[in-house]
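PT: before anyone asks, these are the final sequences, not the draft ones from last week. 570 residues across everything. Please model them as a single complex and drop the result in this thread when it's through.
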Amino acid sequence: MASKGFVLSRLPGFNAIAIGVFVALYLPIGMLVVYSFNAGKSVASWEGFSLQWYAVAWANDAVKDATIRSLYLALSAAVISTLLATLAALGTTRRAAFKGQTFIYVMINQPLMVPEIVSAVALLIFFAMIKQATGYAGMGYLIAAHAAFCIPFAYLPIRARLEGMDLTLETAASDLYASSWQTFRFVTLPLLLPGIFAGMMLAFVTSLDDVVITVFVKSAGQDTLPTYMLGQIRRQVTAEINAISTVLLALTVALLTLFFLLTRKKD
Amino acid sequence: MSPAEQAQITQSTRNGWLLSAPALVLLTIAAVGPLAIVVAYSFMPQGDFNGVAWGFSLEAWQGILFTKDVFDGTLAWADANLTIFWRSVKLSMLTTVFTFVVGFPTSWFIATRAPKARALWLFLITIPFWTNLLIRTFAINEIIRKEGLLNTILLKLHIISKPLEMIYTDTAVFIGMTYVYLPLMVLPLFASLDRFDMRLLEAAYDLYASPFQVLRKVIVPIVKPGIIAGSILVFVPSLGAYVTPRLLGGGKNMMIGNFIELQFGQGRNWPLGASLSVTLLFIVTGALLVYVRHANRETTHGQ
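LR: through. Structure below.
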């Protein structure tokens, strides 16, 4: 391992830049978290520890409303997209490669490739047509849009899990006269569950974070937490936003930690 | 192949399609299908109040580059549009280059840690990546705005006498995009460095290569796929960025994403918004195709 130290010393400044990058990545987010506990209103001065901005945010009906809507939307989108992604992953792995498989991959990953603003505009036009034709202006549009762009995020970990799974257990089950449903229910599904949970978590976080598509698709009075924040930031009401951001941040970090624990290779 | 095996494969293919069908249906309705409507809209004339009128027109495509004089109908270059395109391309390229310049040493640093520490450093890069883009942009806003942290500190230290006007400039957008998209550069670079055999470096040094030669002739060729992947992952969302230029660039320093939105808002020119969207989509698809082609060549070359 001495050779590594030797090599590193030959690339001067790399470590310093790397540490600088980590500091630069965490400093702004860190400041935001710290100042969410500031008694004062501005980031210009620290006026002591206080939870008042959390109280302000919590007492704000618009925030409460947006939070509930965000969670409802993210949960619906995560459940739907994970269900569809699980089926698609079962359909596209561990069978003889078939014609059209690439087409299915492209379709599933399409939300990752198209710029979000373009998808948002497309959905705006399309849903405006449907709204006009049917008069329906509920949450269905947001749920459909979110579930669609969450599919690749749910699909990737589930597929990875499936590809890492051995076929021998399933073969053994069918050799012991289990029906294909029994094999799936009692062998495949239990083995696949960590992947499904991981996919669902990524889908949930993705939906919870979305701004652009939501801004374009939502009807009046359908603000989610991010779109509410976007509206507020322009009006420079900042201290309350710090508190909301911190809560969202904590939720994301918690879910990600769980995700890493679920997908961690056991060795 | 026996007929039984053949039948089994056909059955398996059919199941593959059946299982994928629900996802494909939703994606068609709420992702791919609407894109086709955007393409159609870009070839229609502008409607009276909103939306489009029925018919065929190339005006929206012409409108990307030219403006028509209201009185005599002569065409002139649309300078405002060209400025926005140029700013988008320039800022996206600067962001790509700069994220590489600082992202490469970072991924190098992570790849040369001991395996356990490596997982932790990687996790530290992943957290900002998954953190809400709006929150991260807002965090940068808090730092660089007029009454922000940076100005406050510099003023208190008497380094500057009046606050720096950083927010609502191209520089602010550049700083914001670099901050926001940096993990997208570091992750693929790390992926390619992770497989890199460090003994190659030792061999190069033993053969009297200078550090620069090692970088250029040994490291760069091996991490090239990572460089290309990282560049595309940063360039593509930068070019279509909406939130970051909106919050840090203000109303004047628009990028293509904001310009597209404008056409569906105050601009009330849906066909132009559609043709701009299709253009953006083409550029992005082009970049992705270059990547896919390159990635394929790379793998066949390696075999």
